[in-house]
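Objective 1b of the project was to move from sequence-level analysis to a structural picture of ligand recognition. The entry below was assembled by the postdoctoral researcher (A.K.) and checked by the PI before modelling. It contains the amino acid sequence of the target and the SMILES of the bound compound, 2-acetamido-2-deoxy-beta-D-glucopyranose.
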Amino acid sequence: MHLYAATFLWISCLLPSQVDLLNNGLARTPPMGWLAWERFRCDIDCKDDPDNCISEKLFKTMGDLLVKEGYKDAGYEYVNIDDCWLTHSRNAKNQLVADPTRFPSGITNLSSYIHNLGLKLGIYEDFGTKTCAGYPGILFQMDTDAQMFADWGVDMLKLDGCNVPTELMPYGYPEMGRALNRTNRPIMYSCSWPAYLAGGPKLPDYQAIAQSCNLWRNYDDIQDSWDSLKGIIDFYGDDKGNFSMFAGPGAWNDPDMLIIGNYGLSYDQQRVQMAMWAIMASPLLMGNDLRHIAPESKAILQNKNVIAINQDPMGKMGKRVIKNNDIQVWTRPVMPTGSYAFTIVNYGVYGTPAKLNYKLSDMGISGAKSYLITEVFDGGKIGVHTTSDVVTYTVNPTGVFMGKAIPQ
Ligand SMILES: *[C@@H]1O[C@H](CO)[C@@H](O)[C@H](O)[C@H]1NC(C)=O
Ligand SMILES: *[C@@H]1O[C@H](CO)[C@@H](O)[C@H](O)[C@H]1NC(C)=O
Ligand SMILES: *[C@@H]1O[C@H](CO)[C@@H](O)[C@H](O)[C@H]1NC(C)=O
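Corresponding predicted holo structure:
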């Protein structure tokens, strides 16, 4: 077994004063909510598929279920529209228009409905000439469109990056951020900017991104599969350009939607996504169908202990500290002071749970004489251990152990 531990240069030595994060009062912890894309895509066929098409009915239904099924109480707050809500052209006044057959009451009506539930409404646009699905984009219309969103009572904007040269992004994304700010309405700003640079020759300018955006889609869109999930976790583990350094209250890396409750992941793999999104301080935006969801998936999504790690007020993003064939370990400093959350992820498919031995010091956890170690999902006690005690963790095939270590 070859373990290599990364250098534990926690962000605390590269002080937050060196990174400058957007502070518009929003997203002080990673935003939580629901977003249509992963599950409902661009289904605009309300005639033959009225229950699943992109329409005001879908968003009202999901808002109702966030409340009724306990998601709101667990912290999920935003109901977010994605692509395909628009008509194909602007109106005579050059304004964006929601499709009148699918949104007959209009966005203002929808936002009041969502607000009356005690929730917030998010909308989608694209920085380019057209959205990814070919609807009007906001290029050259930023101020009027930002004001329109504010007038409609919108609380969050996801701004995609199709149909525009990436060279314009360093100008356009900050400009739309300023346009949103000028409306004086607090509108959380999600940028797809670095997602369009991933794998390109130049690293995204994460400092500039974190100054303009509350969250930014970093890396490819998630798909409904374990392979897609692993690809995202690996990209975040590699942390090329040290983007983990630019996460904090007000500004978050966004590895895309939670696919828990859909078709592609086993029970254990769903736990992996929830645990990893918590350790990475990721936005928790569910992309599922809240009408049809297995009780065990719902329990994962509403697990209070895991959500508490995700929402930790320090907002430090976790890092991968060990990578060894199928096994990786991530740690994240959390409250109370001196504590850590950690995940041990097993990509292996060897059909019996892996028994893995680690000292806390192997995982970069040190500073106190001993720690109380608990399992996070169930809150079960593992025991009190010094940093040099060897502790055995059992991790299912394509599964995760999530722990917390609190100084004693
Ligand atoms: C606008 O920006 C200023 C300066 O960063 C910030 O204090 C304020 O909260 C922002 N207002 C809105 C509505 O975003
Ligand atoms: C929203 O639309 C519904 C149905 O068209 C209507 O009953 C309701 O009064 C409208 N609400 C507002 C706030 O305009
Ligand atoms: C990332 O951080 C490491 C040390 O923590 C440093 O050696 C490296 O140069 C940094 N890379 C970038 C692109 O900033």
